[in-house]
Amino acid sequence: MQVTSQWIDGLCFVGTTENGHSVVMEGAAAEGGVKRGPSPMEMLLLGVAGCSSIDMVMIAEKQRQKVSDCRATVTAKRADEAPRVFTEIHIHFKVFGTDLKESAIAQAVRLSAEKYCSASIMLGKAAAVSHSFEIVECV
User: Fold this and answer.
1) What is the C-alpha to C-alpha distance for residues 37 and 43, in angstroms, rounded to an integer?
2) Residues 12 and 36 sit within 8 Å (Cβ to Cβ)
3) Measured distance CA(48)–CA(46) in Å, rounded
């Protein structure tokens, strides 16, 4: 896997993946950024949200759960001093669907957290990572 980051101006960069996808990133406003894109640390959290959501939905679907939507909200705390690493990360899944079994969704979240989501497992080596979920029944 390879990505490239190219400086645009100020604290703004464009990141490009080897598959040709691009995203604008910028330093936080406190660092002089003007909010043209997420910060690199926000991108890390987006990666965790995406990775864990993909795993959770794939596992739930293999369990024949009728998931119609999944939203992952990731909240994090950072160290006060540089390097301002993440110290705590919490992933909360809001899972929408019909006749969802709490035990199946709990297992999908657990398997994502413990076995499949390389992003959260990797960040878990440096920060305390926790998970929770709620089910929203759709009719």
Assistant:
1) 10
2) yes
3) 5
Query: pTM of the entire structure?
Result: 0.92
- In tens, the pLDDT along 82-102 reads 999 999 999 999 999 999 999
| pLDDT single digits (tens) 109-139 | 999 999 999 999 999 999 999 999 999 999 8
* Residue 102 bridge partners (DSSP): none
* 75 C-beta neighbours (distance < 10 Å), count: 11
> Strand order of the sheet with strand 22-26?
3-9, 12-17, 22-26
**Domains defined for the chain, CATH in brackets:** 1-38 (2.20.25.10), 40-137 (3.30.300.20)
**Is the Cβ–Cβ distance between 86 and 127 less than 8 Å?**
yes
What is the Cα–Cα distance from 2 to 19, expressed in whole angstroms?
9
Quote the Cα angle for 23-116-42, to 5°: 30
